[in-house]
Amino acid sequence: MSHHPVRADRVWPFHRGCLAHPAETITAIRQLISRAESLTADSPPYDLARWRATALVVLSALCPPDDLVWKLLRPDTAGSATPYPPSDQVFAEGWGTTLGVLEGLVAPLPPAHQTEPLRPPERMSTATPGPGLYRPALRKDDDPLQTLAAAGPVIRLLGPAEVLGTDGPHPDGPDLRRVVEAAAFIHLCPGGDTGRFNRALWPQHPINTRTRDHLAAQLRGWIGDDRFTERPQGGYAFTDAVTSDWAQFQQHVRNAQNAPGPYGDQALRQALDLVQGPPCTDLPHKDPDGWAAPHTHAMTILIVDAALQLMQRCLAAGDLTGAAWAGGRAMLVTPAPEALHLSIQLSRLTAGEIGAGQTARTALETLRATLDATRPVGTPAAHTPGPASPSPGTATSPSHAAAPLVRYFGAVELVGATGPVGSNRVRRLTEYAAYLHLHPGSRYQDLDRALWPGKDIFSNTRNAATSHLRKWIGAEYFPDASSEGGYAFTPAVTSDWNQFQAHLQAAQNAPDGEAEFALQQALELVRGRPFAGTSPGGFTWAARLAHDMSKAIIDAAHDLTHRRLAAGDIDGALWAAGQGLLATPRTAYDRVESFRIDAPTDRTTAAHQAATDLSHLKDTLGTAAHLVAVDQPA
């Protein structure tokens, strides 16, 4: 195999990245090259992808962005546009180039027994730091399954498959992985006949009854006779005493659907904390059409869904670290090429770059759509029973109609704009669109004072911003300004604030059932505090509007909470209260402390306490001497 040459006079930046020690760096590269000896261009793309992703992580800690290495590797191409390479040959070539780069790097290094390179120390100090990477941490020291395992057997499926919490003899040697696979199969496919069990665990060749019975006996002795009773006629099945991280994950996600804001967030974190890697890894068979494939696909979908939901909640609340953590859990199940791209965005997000959150979320949404498109035949749906009311903190998805929509309830967004826009312009143009939608007919003096407060700007600055916004949103929605009408969008451009007010209008004088439904539709739009997570110095014009929107949300939540309490609908009341509390100003958040503490243990008391807290907030905002400040990240 031919490889691209790498210059021999490379400066070796040992102080950069997480591989800071020279010996560790050299060892890591040599291990990668050694591991590649078992691979060829004809190896399965998945194996090549995992190896190449590891190599790119190491290289990113060594090579600055403008290095020749990245021109050779082109990590954004060679099969990285989708979770599954469009061409195995293209990806194999990308793998080969990566191996060639590593071999070129290691060529001028000292032999393996030397720990220091033969380089002048003054040259090593000239390298500049490269981009960091986000690496999700696994809680090996505080495994969330350990508490469950203390009460009985728990099967780990969201990562390397294993069985915890058993008290019988541990299977040894090559039988262990097969017994773990049997436990996973029985837990996910209980009650199947013995023929189905045989075909799943021994798909390549038929086996005799003695082999199957020996395996079942090993599993029964390990897990316990009382938890795995003998009933081959009715199929193999565990008792309810045996659970799994997958069962717990689904339960936490269900809890999130019925819990108000803070509780929903916590339930999603508890679910995602269980994820330790791609589902069902380390099973003996990696057949993409094997029995586990539909289940692992469904698990991956629900993990990405939960991560997206929590990331959106955190971004709406201005919690960039929490949003990055949620994305990191999804990164654990993301295919290798996309995981590298996602890790870069999450690193930028933790560094305070708000725009990286939108990029990371878009990447996960693309992955989610691809997972749907590649769903294996027989894949079970990721079952998350919906509540009587929608999930708190999650706005109804905007219509896919052509007209753009501005979202104010949470992080301010312009959705539905399909024109070209540079990532460095999104923040400023989003504020421009938000202001213009709320202040139609603005003159250029109004725009200058709002968007560039305290600055004297030239007309070409404003005109350039206007031109970029027009291209992004579409000229059909943003016509040229007129001397009579000023700057304005067409009426087709709407917002969640417009929709919220329309639902409130519909609720007035409507029969009880219709009014309650209209209030619910209004509160479904709430993702967080109005104008949450804006960058420092931005949206200075929005303080009064943030106050008015928060007050309207809390008023509607107060109304719907009391209606549902009167009807005896405790879960519905908690949902309505949770939506209202999402808009709670930080200065008044201490009023809901008792609600946050009591809800998990006494839902009825918590619902009544929430109604009381909302009443206080309603009165406070109605007579507030100070406006609600636009929420900005700390």
Description:
It comes from Streptomyces canus. Keywords: Transcription, Transcription regulation, Two-component regulatory system. The protein contains 24 helices and 8 strands. It is mainly alpha-helical and 634 residues long. The protein folds into 4 domains: 103 residues; 242 residues, no CATH class; 87 residues, Arc Repressor Mutant, subunit A, CATH 1.10.10; 128 residues, Serine Threonine Protein Phosphatase 5, Tetratricopeptide repeat (Alpha Horseshoe), CATH 1.25.40. Helix 2 runs parallel beside helix 4. The radius of gyration is 28 Å and the shape is globular. The two termini are 52 Å apart.
Helix-strand makeup class: mainly alpha
Number of strands: 8
Distance between the termini: 52 Å
Q: Which regions are unreliable across 5 or more consecutive residues at pLDDT < 50? A: 1-21, 77-89, 110-131, 377-401, 587-600, 625-629
Strand content: under 5%
Task: Please state the CA-atom Rg, rounded to the nearest Å.
Answer: 28 Å
Q: What is the helix tally?
A: 24
Principal-axes shape call: globular
Strand order of the largest sheet: 2-1-3
Count of spatially separate domains: 4
| Average pLDDT for all residues | 76
Helix content: 40-55%
Main sheet overview:
3 strands, mixed
